[in-house]
Amino acid sequence: MARRYTAQETxxxxxxSSENEESREPDDTSDAxxxxxxxDPHFEITEEQNSDEDSEEESPEExxxxxxxxxxxxxxxxxxxxxxxxxxxxxxxxxxxxxTRYACSRAEDIKSTFELYFxxxxxxxxxxxxxxxxxxxxxxxxxxxDWMTMxxxxxxLILAGVFKSHDEATxxxxxxxxxxxxxxxxxxxxxxxxxxxxxxFDDKSTRAARRETDKLAPIRELxxxxxxxxxxxxxxxxxxxxxxxxxxxxxxxxFKQYMPSKPAKYGLKIWAACDAKSSYSYNMQVYTGKPPxxxxxxxxxxxxxxxxxxxxxxxIVTCDNFFTSYGLGTELLQRKVRMIGTVxxxxxxxxxxxxxxxxxxxxxxxxxxTETHTIVSYCPKKxxxxxxxxxxxxxxxxxxxEDRKPTMILxxxxxxxxxxxxxxxxxxxxxxxxxxxxRKRQKEDHSHPSLLAEANGNATEAQSDMALILSEIKAxxxxxxxxxxxxxxIAGSVSSLQNLFTALTERIEGIETRLTEAxxxxxxxxxxxxxSEGQLANLLTKVEQLQSKVDDLENRGRRKNLRIVGLxxxxxxxxxxxSFLHSxxxxxxxxSLTLDIERAHRSPSFAPSNTNSAPRSVLxxxxxxxxxxxxxxxxxxxxxxxGFT
Length: 645
Hints:
By secondary structure, the chain is α+β, with helices and mostly antiparallel strands. Among the domains are: 1-23 and 40-45 and 58-91 and 346-405, no CATH class; 107-199, no CATH class; 451-552; 565-641, Alpha-Beta Plaits (2-Layer Sandwich), CATH 3.30.70. The protein is 42% helix and 13% strand. It has helices at 7-14, 101-106, 110-117, 120-138, 147-162, 170-173, 181-186, 189-198, 207-211, 220-233, 300-308, 326-334, 352-355, 407-415, 422-427, 432-440, 451-475, 481-557, 577-583, 625-641, and strands at 65-67, 74-76, 98-99, 234-235, 239-248, 257-258, 266-275, 281-286, 316-319, 338-342, 365-369, 374-381, 384-390, 561-564, 597-603, 617-622. Strands 5, 6, 7, 8, 9, 10, 11, 12 and 13 form a nine-stranded mixed β-sheet that branches. The protein has a three-stranded antiparallel β-sheet with strand order 14-16-15. 18% of the residues are buried.
């Protein structure tokens, strides 16, 4: 009776393998390299019923070809023979990877590099729409801003991010002692808060109509213009990653997404195509959900990939199982782009033999091929397998590592993190980008003359040429007299232009001289103001000291004063009030000093017109403080003798 071979033995035989794969248990220690077999949020796998491990079933002889689930694709166990020759069209990159010539020729410093991504068209949108909203909100109290003010506003926002002031109160940044001086120097806090409340990117009066068909209407125009700039500055390397990223945001937004696998969990979902090596974002799309009034979109992943890489040729796109499909790979090959990515097991283009996990040993791989596609089913552990599809691999290459991972999986693991690293690029400034651009610039020092000097030189050269042509024309005779007159007029015009350029040059030099003088005066005024501020602070300190001394002297002067309440009006008679008080003073101790009264008077100075009114108080000033104390003690003693407490 003929021996029946298992599917694995049949595969080894077809691939001319002399050794059979032995069943091995998975290693307990985790691999340091990130594995594509980790849980993916897009995987939707229905668990199949597992057969008993102890049972062994005999499988029938396997056909060398596999038919897909939908019966439309025939997969082969053997790769198509590859004939050596010229590289295929999808393997040739037309654009040199790295910064483009456009970026290298214009990026000279940080400001010029920033303006490459925020050109005049975007600047005009920001300034125009912000002024429009400011006039609508503040009416006559609003003064139109220009790009310099908006640039200062954006710079302060970036600087707040550099200082990691996300959770810091805005007023604390402008605080005189605890804040930062650069914020106060650029813009007052009131202007910053006012500008923050009205900064806009579109016309709010027409937003409602546009929002009915576009949820991104408030920023659509500016977003599209900014995304158009991304491919102009940088050409990606061979490997490009397409994936989703989440910009953390918990405010009000109709297309805010919840993604528990992301660190931010809540935010705006963006489809991005990034260079797998540098994580530079080549193209981006904001996911706004299902358009209003439409059904659920089919083949969303395919549409996103084709739109994000529409201008690329010769690259390899790495994507996860949300995007990967047989149809996507075919469409990309027509555009001269290859693909590699994980595949969901419910895809109809897969053969059932590669999806099943029965009788599969650990670290075993099962390949299937068509003329354009290659798929591999790899088992990292028992009863678990992961499936990848590629149009960039044409063989069944397996690494020499202990886990015997296919080369296809290793290539996927090394290129799948381009978009995942994009969040790190957002948080940390990449200082090497500008240096890389500057290294690519030409080392020659090109001297660019000024426009006026260049125009002056051209005018001089043109005048000499005209004089030469004029002499040649005169030699030809009187028939060319009319042409000669016209050329003389041109020469005169050129001479007038030269004189005009000379006058403009002198005028500009005079303006530069006055600007230099004005800068010197402003600098002197600022220095004088700084000195005046120091002197003013010293004077304020001295005023405070003198004020405290005056208060102390006033308090000491009032220690000898005594107020007498209830003395009837006119009791003192016609004589001085001080003499009356001296004679009628309460009984004093025999050994007490003689009382010396400096002055005594009633307050207020005018007597009340009504005789039934309470008598005015009497203010007495003694010569010594001890005399006032003796009088107070004697009065208190006499009051107690009458029963008062």
